[in-house]
C-alpha cells in the first residue's frame, strides 16, 4: 500500500481537484492521510466525507510542514509513503512507474519531476513561464476555482497526460540528485536510514536532500534524494499567496536552512537550480 500524506489549510477547489487526480492516476492500493490545520472553507468536511480510502487528522491549530508530515508517518499503514502537496496534479500510473525504481539500487527516497525541477532545468523554466502567463490573469479575474485550475492546465500543456506520456517515453527512470519538494516519495527503509522530517526546518525538502546526501557519503547505504525524470506532476504553487494564514503553532521551534546548513551550502545548491 502507498500512504499519501498531505497537510492542508483551506483551498477547497484545489483539494477537490487533487483528490480527483489521485483517484484517476493511482493504480496500486492507496490511502490518503489528510492533516487538517484548521480549515474553515469546507475542506475538512470534504475530506471527512471522501470515503474509506481517506483519513483525516484534525489539528487544533496551523502546524509547520515537517510536523504534519511526521504526524502522517505515525498514522500511515503503507510500506511506501508519498509526501504530496495538495496543489498538484499527478500523471497516470505515476505509482506503478515509480515502483520500478523505488527501493532498488539504494533509491529509497525520490521525487517526481515537475515544472519546478526536471532533468532539463531549462525545460522546467519554460513550462513555468508559460504556466505563470496563464495563472496570474485567471486568478486575478476569476480566483482559484476548479474550472480555472483545469483551464490553466489546458492552456499550459494542451493534453496533460499526452505530455506526461511523452516525457516518460523520453526520460523514463533517468535520475539526477535533487528534488521537487511538492512530491517526495520514500520507503520505510529510507525513513529509517535518512530519518524523519526535521521539525525545526520549514524548508524541510532541502534538509531532507542534504541529510540523504550526507548519509550517502558517510554510509553508502542510500542514494541522495533524486528526481525521477520521466514521472511528472504539475505543481500549481502559491495559488493563495496573497491570503493570510494563521501563524504556525510551533513557530518558536522553526529555524532557517541557513542556520542549520550554512549560507554557502544553500547558495551552492540554489545556484544549480
List keywords for this structure.
single chain, 273 residues, alpha/beta, nine-stranded mixed beta sheet, 11 helices, 43% helix, globular
Question: In short, what is this structure?
Answer:
This protein is an alpha/beta fold and 273 residues long. It has helices at 12-25, 43-48, 65-75, 94-98, 121-142, 146-157, 160-171, 188-194, 204-218, 257-261, 263-271; strands at 2-8, 30-36, 54-58, 80-84, 88-90, 109-114, 175-177, 183-187, 226-235. The two termini are 33 Å apart.
Give your account of this protein's structure.
This protein has 273 residues and is of the alpha/beta class. It is 43% helix and 19% strand. It contains 11 helices and 9 strands. Strands 1, 2, 3, 4, 5, 6, 7, 8 and 9 form a 9-stranded mixed sheet that branches. Strand 2 (30-36), helix 2 (43-48) and strand 3 (54-58) form a beta-alpha-beta unit. Helix 5 runs antiparallel to helix 6 (146-157). The longest helix has 22 residues, at 121-142. The protein is globular and about 50 Å long.
Largest sheet: 9 strands, mixed
Q: What's the pLDDT, averaged over the residues?
A: 95
Query: Could you state the order of secondary-structure elements as H and E?
Result: EHEHEHEEHEHHHEEHHEHH
N→C terminal distance:
33 Å
Q: What Rg is obtained from the alpha carbons, in whole angstroms?
A: 18 Å
Task: Catalogue the unreliable spans.
Answer: none
Helix content: 40-55%
Q: Give the beta-strand count.
A: 9
What is the strand and helix layout of this fold?
Layout: E1 2-8, H1 12-25, E2 30-36, H2 43-48, E3 54-58, H3 65-75, E4 80-84, E5 88-90, H4 94-98, E6 109-114, H5 121-142, H6 146-157, H7 160-171, E7 175-177, E8 183-187, H8 188-194, H9 204-218, E9 226-235, H10 257-261, H11 263-271
Parallel strand pairs: 1-2, 1-4, 2-3, 6-9
Antiparallel strand pairs: 4-8, 5-9, 6-8, 7-9
Helix pairs in contact: 5-6
